[in-house]
């Protein structure tokens, strides 16, 4: 599998095209329904009672002590995180602590990063697999990327997986908005990378766009990974990125 974290250096136009062809500061909960809906993807629903996968305190401490990896993600990470941790350990020997929560946008994921950093300290690598649920209010992401980079500091590497959303169970107009907002989210990540040399992007959207058949083989309803094909492909890209920063 080609390494899309480092080998692809897309222009702004290429990112927009990838977002469209492959169908992504304020907290969403503080916005009115009208503001959230103005971006066309609908409104973020209450995620706080959704499924989650959280590593226990002793294991988090072990990850810091062994300089492993912290991961913060959403529902895709809840589904795929265990397989990712196994793949990473088999490949590099690294252990991973996860704070994954279905439906969660990036702002509370960064809050969780800050909480762990204050309570436990941090390893040298942080994996952010979040942003999918920011399609409902894309402008929030830029400030949260900056928060993440400030928390991590210049001597740690933040690996961030970009997103692909075009929900096939929604209307054509919502799918179009999803594609537009996907590109918006991914552009904010690429812009931030220009300012932060320790930010590495896993280009999941571009990987999917490279071969149209991947959209149906690797995604369920235009968003979540299929198992095993999509899960293996996305996890492999993230493991490659993490291994390259070891």
Descriptive report:
The chain is α/β, with parallel strands linked by helices and 246 residues long. It has helices spanning 12-21, 33-37, 57-65, 75-92, 106-120, 141-152, 172-195, 204-210, 213-218, 229-244; strands spanning 52-54, 69-73, 96-101, 125-129, 157-161, 199-202, 219-220, 224-225. Strand 4, helix 6 and strand 5 form a beta-alpha-beta unit. Helix 6 (141-152) packs parallel to helix 7. The longest helix has 24 residues, at 172-195. It is globular and about 50 Å long. Residues 1-9 and 15-36 have low confidence and may be disordered.
Features:
single chain; 246 residues; alpha/beta; six-stranded mixed β-sheet; two-stranded antiparallel sheet; 10 helices; 50% helix; 13% strand; globular; disordered N terminus
Summarize the structure.
By secondary structure, the chain is of the alpha/beta class. Helices cover 50% and strands 13% of the residues.
Apparent shape: globular
Report the C-alpha radius of gyration, rounded.
Answer: 17 Å
Separate helix tally? 10
Helix-strand sequence: HHEHEHEHEHEHEHHEEH
Sheet-strand content, in percent, reads 5-15%
Give the terminus-to-terminus CA distance: 19 Å
